[in-house]
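Support request, please re-run this one:
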Amino acid sequence: MNSSFDDPDYDYAASVAGRAMRSMAEQRIAPAPANFAVWYQYFAGSHDDLRNAIDLLIDHNRPFDARTNQALFETYVAPQVSAVVVDTSERLQALMGTAKEFLATAIADNHSQMQVISQVADQGKAGVDPKLLVAQLMNELARAATRATRLEAGFAEKTRELDVIRDSLSRSEQRARTDTLTGLANRRALDEFLRKAQTTAEWGEPLSVLMLDIDHFKSFNDNFGHGVGDQVLRLMAKVLREKVRAQDLPARYGGEELIAVLPDADLATAADIAERIRRAIADARITRRSTGETLPGISVSIGVAQYRQGEAVTDLIERSDRALYLAKGGGRNRVVTEIELDRAGAAG
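Re-run finished. Output below.
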């Protein structure tokens, strides 16, 4: 739980690795690197299609033989160039080629028009009937207008294609910044947000952090299964997302730990938000999807800390984590601020 901010998710990774190895042993799967990669991603919740495939195999009592294991690895885990990147690159290349053709056509049309106008001017000097000259100019202008209309339509179509590519890249970037299981911001997005928030906090704006952890989550997983545990995490993430403010960032910190970064919130404001989150989760009810049974209620412990000018972000995270530990030690289902850390230290 007390993972380093600069060396993210060690405890979480170790927990996931342990679960992967235990399941591989239960399924009598050889602990080869490729097999471990499959099961690590399964328990990390980073690949929904992989999770669905393995769940289906387990539900139908299918053996995880060498052929099945290889197929899982090659289909879901083996390094591949992102289809989004490949598709985007190919479409951009095609668009650039089309744009070059459009420009070449426009330049050629311009030369053609200038040549016709020059010829008409020469004919006018030579005494050609003005009516004929006007007719020639009108014909050339009509052809130019038709070509311009076609070019404009072509440019409009390619502009729409560029908009589609831009949206695709935007969605890809959003996925890269989102935790797959909870839908919250991941550690990459969290790090970026904290850096910006720290810069603002150095000018005097308050900045606080909430660190949340599900109480007795391991027992819950052991009793009801990891699928239900994932459901609990998603519920917790939903409550967190709904209870923080629009300017705040809720994120997954690691394992069953979530975090919320609260710009422009002092310790008292952050503690009030934390208490709303704690009550909402304590009041929530979870129904097991497979059976419809209502499961025991869950609770969270929350540590709250406020940024101190000049300190490292790791210090802020560490204090909120210590406050979380104090909440756990004080009976769980509690909100503890860093003020209580000072009191506990003085009492000790």
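The longest strand covers residues 207-214. Residues 130-176 form the longest helix (47 residues).
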